[in-house]
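Entry:
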Amino acid sequence: MDNDSTIKTARRIFEVLEYFEEVQRPISLKEIAHQYGYPTSSASALLKSMVILGYLFYDSYNRTYMPTMRIAQMGGWLKSGLFGESAILALVDYVFEQVDELVSISTQSDLYAQYIHRLQTTKRLRFDIRIGDIRPLAISGVGRTMLSTHTDVEIERLVRRINATCPAEERVELELLMKIINGIRRDGYMFSKHVITQDAGVIAMPLPKRSFGRILVLGVGGPVSRLEENHDHILASMRAGIERFLKD
């Protein structure tokens, strides 16, 4: 099997698992093939392989598939491993109750910031993110907040890598970026507006380093106008939550 085929197979496995996460019910071969445009034969072979390996259960009566408990158990260690005995999850719940906006946790994934947990607002006007979504490390609010926890030398090295892999028009000017980074370090947070999505913003704050030395960022996102109106309350809630749940 060549590299392209290997990548395609791996991608399809995760697409199937993510689709189960989205719909949270049994699915049929026809449905998954239609959802992602897989050839029926390829979808059938994929699902049967996942059944043989113990990751899916096949209901022959209804002709549907469901994940087995093996899937649920595989990620059981992550909650404590990434979040530290659920303290981060408790923090997110607390901030969400206080502000009722999109509250997220993101971490660094190479040259990107990646969302790994989020609670969505109940308000009608909102912007959504999905767990697993990534943002440019040197451009996005959460990404720049992550960079603020690195040393200047580390930031320079990351910027060189970013500029070596992105189009010329997207290259980052280190001097300008460092002015923003130093502002985050001074204030303890960043308020990013209209960067990734017009009219959307995020107030991002770095968290104390957790298990495995991972950098985590707490974000409160939503329409810029709402974030501006409730700026002081949001900041106070984030700081109070960090003090309450992550105090050493």
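The chain has a mean pLDDT of 89.
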